[in-house]
Each structure stands twice: as C-alpha cells, then as structure tokens.
Amino acid sequence: MKKENIYILGIESSCDDTSAAVLCNDQILSNVVADQKIHAEYGGVVPELASRAHQQNIVPVVHQALEKAGIKKEQLSAVAFTRGPGLMGSLLVGTSFAKSLAYGLDIPLIDVNHMQAHILAHFIDEDHHNKPPFPFLAMTISGGHTQIVKVSRYFEMEVLGETIDDAVGEAYDKSGKVLGLGYPAGPEIDRRAQLGNPKAYQFTKPKVDGLNFSFSGLKTNILYFVQREVKANPNFIEENLNDICASIQYTIIGILMAKLKLAVKETGINHIAIGGGVSANSGIRKALKDAEQKSGWTSYIPKFEYTTDNAAMIAIVGYLKYLEKDFSDFDVMATARLKI
Ligand code: KG4
Ligand code: ZN
What we know:
Blueprint: E1 7-12, E2 17-24, E3 27-35, H1 47-69, E4 78-84, H2 88-105, E5 109-113, H3 114-120, E6 136-141, E7 146-153, E8 156-162, H4 168-178, H5 186-193, H6 216-232, H7 236-267, E9 271-275, H8 282-295, E10 298-300, H9 312-323
Parallel strand pairs: 1-4, 4-5, 6-9, 9-10
Antiparallel strand pairs: 1-2, 2-3, 6-7, 7-8
Helix pairs in contact: 1-2, 3-9, 4-6, 5-7, 7-8
The structure holds 5'-O-[(R)-(carboxyoxy)(hydroxy)phosphoryl]adenosine and zinc ion.
Residues 114, 118, 142, 144, 276, 309 line the site of zinc ion.
C-alpha cells in the first residue's frame, strides 16, 4: 500500500528573518525567507523593529510558501514553529500565528527548538548531501550561537561546550564595525580574507577551559589594535584591510578548529556537521576539508540556504516529531532561553 504523504508547514521568526517552508515528507517544496534590511542602518538587530517586521511579513510569507509548494492549506498535516531560543517579541509572532492556523485547520501543532533545527537541517533529503550517521558532533556557529553538540539520536543531544559571552558571528560583525564595514560584516570579512595575508597580524586567542568558547576578548583586542595603528597612520585600515580581515579570520577559524579537535579527541567521534550563518564561511569549510584529508574526519556542510535562519529546518524537525506523534498542547509558550 502506498504511504500517505505528510505535508508540514514550518514557521521561523526567532530573530530577524521571517520564514515559512513546506515539506512533503523529508523533501522541501518551498522555503521562503524575508530578511529585514532595516537593521543594517543600526548596525545590529533592533528587537522592537524585528517583531513589527515579523507581524507585517508573516501572512505574505506563509501565503507565498504555500503557493510555491503548490498546495492548499487544507492539505497540511501539521504546523511546526520555532518556540525558542530567540527574541521574545519575534518568537511571539510566529508562535501566535502557528497556533491560530493549526487551531483553525484542526491539525496538530508542533513546537521546535531552533538550535536542534540548525542541526537537524542535515536530515532534509537533498541530492548530493549525505546525512550524518549517529553519533556525530554538530557545531552551530552564527550571530546568536556557538555550540558543540553531541548528537546520539534525532532528539538526544548533549551540549559539550558553548560560548560564555559573544557568539562567533558577533565576533565577525563587531570586528567589522571597528573596521567601518557594513552589517552583517561576516561575508565581507570572509571575501577580503581570501585576498589577504592571514599571518600579517596576530591577535590573542582566548584561554577558555574545555569545549567552551569566548570571543569578547578578541573583539577588544582587535579594537585596541586598530585604534593604536590608526593613531600612527590614519590610512592604516584602507591600506591593510585585506590583511586585517585575513588575520581576523585566521584567528577565529583557529579557535573553532582547536575546540573541534578537542571534542573529537574527547568523544572519539569524527563525523562533524556544521550549521548556522557562519558555516557559509570559506575558512571553516576549507579547514574541515583539510581535516578530512589529514585526520580522517568526515564533514557535513549544509546547502547555503539552510545555513542561515530558515523555516525548512523547522519543518524537517516538525516532520521528524510528526512521525513520533510528538505534538504540542495549544497553551505552549514561546521561550526566549530554551535549552537543547
Ligand atoms: O544564522 P544566522 O543567519 O542568524 C543568526 O542566528 O545569527 O547568522 C548570521 C551571522 C552573522 O553574524 C553573519 O556575519 C555571519 O552569520 N556570516 C558569516 C558569513 N556569512 C554569514 N560569517 C563569516 N563568514 C561568512 N561567509
Ligand atoms: Zn539561528
């Protein structure tokens, strides 16, 4: 007998991207993301503006996702949404919308942990993408998170280490601000890093025990370094921008890879999956490929559209929970500080 198709609508609104996606089983039919340009003017996400923009975008984005997928809302099997972690005002928009829609259609509601979703995005069925075998290590690196997680099964995850202050994406963005680059600065630093000398300048690496990370000291180190050099030569930044970017990137990738190496050593697991906006970075991708050659690791790098915040990753978690009939009560609350 042919199995019935399961259609999941995923909704993501944890930070500054409003996104909706439709999955048929584990395959993506649509993944629509409306990013919010407004925050660039302020050099960072402004929570109040983010929640207003979600409010404005949510209906058109969901409408577009259904239209692109070529299905009617009455065909949906369940609605999955990001419960947390994230900005409260932003989460409330997606949570309320998902509840109303699921209630109106009389279908199950499924709450999703955003951090689990960054990891489980690897289980979206895609050509040319191998799914990591259990157990594997996942490193989530973005503007809001930096974690190394041991993943034993879909919903059996253990955080082995995380940042004690800034996330790695913030280290990129704040360094970029010091250099006068636009927000978010990660992609621009990455582009320039590939044109510069990574050993031109040395920055101090944080000393944090175990598998935890710290990036706030590096940010201050870069700030003082640039201030000192600009005092001596007002054109220092313009004249050396590619070398500065290459040196920052070299330092950051060095920090991430050192912790990954330690995690592999401690757990004996050498299947490594990455996720989050910074996994688009050319330096980390190259370092992981090198580790495959040198250390026998296997790395899993998501397709670009599933690295930054998106609803496809929420919908795949929705699908996996749907299979287990792990549904939410309608009084479930958005939670800003949700743990894995
Ligand atoms: O996952 P994401 O879209 O949102 C958060 O949850 O934060 O990640 C955005 C972050 C920003 O900090 C951005 O600068 C960084 O990802 N980013 C990069 C690159 N592309 C995006 N950082 C370094 N290199 C890149 N190529
Ligand atoms: Zn994220």
